[in-house]
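Colleagues,

For the teaching module next term, I've prepared a clean inverse folding example: a structure given as tokens, and then the sequence designed for it. I'd like students to try predicting residues themselves before seeing the answer, so please don't circulate the second half yet.
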């Protein structure tokens, strides 16, 4: 399955909405409306990521008899590689969903 490109498109939208929200006067009605738009987009990104993780987990469980996942602290690895958190924060969620999906087979 090819790498998903949904996050690249949504990330530019998120950047735009956050920039617009930061230019509003704090605690005003327009600022609150902008914050709602930002939170909705965050929710949409989370739902799309979770859907993708579930689809990949089901695909892996269908193809394999047993799956082994190494228990690594990816936050420490990410800091060591580039000095910042560069890995997708959703990998922990994927690992949990993979365990849940494969446990139901």
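(Answer key — instructors only)
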């Amino acid at each position: 399955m090819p790498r998903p490109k949904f996050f690249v498109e949504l990330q530019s939208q998120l950047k735009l909405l956050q920039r617009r929200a930061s230019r509003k006067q704090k605690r005003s009605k327009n600022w609150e409306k902008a914050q709602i738009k930002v939170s909705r987009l965050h929710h949409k990104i989370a739902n799309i990521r979770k859907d993708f993780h579930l689809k990949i987990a089901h695909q892996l469980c269908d193809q394999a008899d047993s799956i082994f996942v190494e228990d690594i602290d990816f936050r420490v690895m990410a800091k060591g590689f580039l000095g910042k958190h560069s890995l997708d924060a959703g990998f922990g969620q994927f690992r949990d969903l993979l365990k849940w999906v494969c446990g139901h087979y």
